[in-house]
């Protein structure tokens, strides 16, 4: 019964009510903490912090570090891509050889069989464009005003 009693008083909370969990940011931004820091830090330090040009070299160092990290990242990416690509190529080489052996003659045969049709289409298009230009020339010659415009 003693344990049960303790659980009941815990649930009630001894008149305090439920306690909310305080985030750490509230402890950092508490005014007393800032005031304590202001009291215990020497004034020369705060003056150096506000006036000296320490920020620019630090920023330059951080930028350099960032650039080095980006360069390392790019090199790692290139290495990963290169190794993956070489593995892929080494595994695809037999496939490429089989394609070269079997598919290439078939494609060449297809192109050769389509060549007469392509030549016929090209000659037809040439003939058609020549006829169109002849019709255009004849119509422009039948209207003398347009011919004068062309001469000018």
TrEMBL record:
What sections of the protein cross the membrane? 61-82, 102-135
Going by the UniProt record, its keywords in alphabetical order are: Membrane, Transmembrane, Transmembrane helix
Record keyword Transmembrane helix present: yes
Q: Which InterPro entries does the annotation name?
A: TMEM239 (IPR031694)
Taken from the record, one Pfam family name reads TMEM239
Q: Tell me the PANTHER family matching this sequence.
A: TRANSMEMBRANE PROTEIN 239
> How is this protein named in the record?
Transmembrane protein 239
- Organism, by scientific name, is Bos indicus x Bos taurus (Hybrid cattle)
């Amino acid at each position: 019964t003693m344990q049960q009693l303790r659980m009941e008083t815990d649930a009630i909370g001894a008149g305090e009510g439920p306690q909310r969990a305080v985030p750490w940011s509230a402890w950092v931004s508490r005014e007393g903490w800032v005031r304590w820091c202001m009291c215990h830090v020497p004034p020369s330090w705060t003056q150096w912090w506000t006036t000296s040009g320490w920020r620019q070299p630090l920023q330059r160092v951080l930028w350099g570090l960032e650039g080095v990290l980006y360069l390392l990242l790019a090199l790692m990416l290139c290495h990963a891509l290169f190794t993956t690509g070489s593995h892929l190529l080494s595994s695809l080489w037999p496939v490429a050889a089989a394609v070269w052996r079997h598919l290439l003659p078939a494609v060449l045969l297809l192109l050769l069989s389509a060549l007469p049709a392509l030549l016929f289409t090209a000659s037809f298009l040439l003939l058609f464009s020549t006829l169109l230009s002849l019709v255009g020339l004849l119509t422009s010659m039948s209207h003398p005003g347009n011919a004068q415009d062309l001469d000018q």
